[in-house]
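Researcher: Quick test of sequence recovery. Tokens follow.
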């Protein structure tokens, strides 16, 4: 093999390695962006599902049979607070969180207490959903936060 041909091949390899480094960096950036967007999508999917359930619950309340029967409540002790929690066939997770806070009275309630009550009521939620819902409820001035406890507003 000639010296000039060898140099040409080595130069081509070096150029290919530079392109590979750029492509690998782009792939890494795109992958990180996709993972961030996937996490955001999952959060919004939870929000959409929660709002759909809330609308369904409110529509069911308009039905004559639902009004006649009322909304089922089951008493449950939440640590020392004795909070009544809503249960039934269709419970909005955000509505459940708000109702639990409202039922906690002047003692208020912490997120771990809310999570334990939800688990007792067989209400499933993503680990971060509770904090997202609490933030939204506080932002909408439906609840208030003092320290690590949440309270009914007003």
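Model:
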């Amino acid at each position: 093999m000639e010296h000039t041909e060898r140099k040409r091949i080595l130069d081509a390899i070096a150029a290919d390695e530079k392109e590979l480094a750029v492509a690998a960096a782009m792939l890494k950036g795109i992958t990180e962006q996709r993972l961030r967007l996937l996490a955001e999508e999952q959060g919004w999917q939870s929000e959409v599902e929660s709002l759909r359930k809330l609308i369904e619950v409110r529509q069911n309340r308009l039905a004559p049979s639902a009004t006649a029967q009322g909304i089922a409540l089951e008493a449950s002790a939440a640590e020392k607070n004795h909070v009544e929690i809503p249960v039934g066939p269709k419970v909005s997770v955000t509505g459940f969180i708000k109702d639990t806070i409202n039922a906690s009275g002047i003692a208020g309630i912490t997120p771990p207490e809310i999570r334990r009550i939800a688990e007792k009521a067989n209400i499933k939620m993503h680990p971060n959903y509770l904090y997202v819902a609490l933030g939204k409820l506080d932002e909408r001035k439906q609840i208030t936060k003092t320290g690590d406890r949440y309270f009914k507003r007003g």
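DSSP finds five helices and four strands in the chain.
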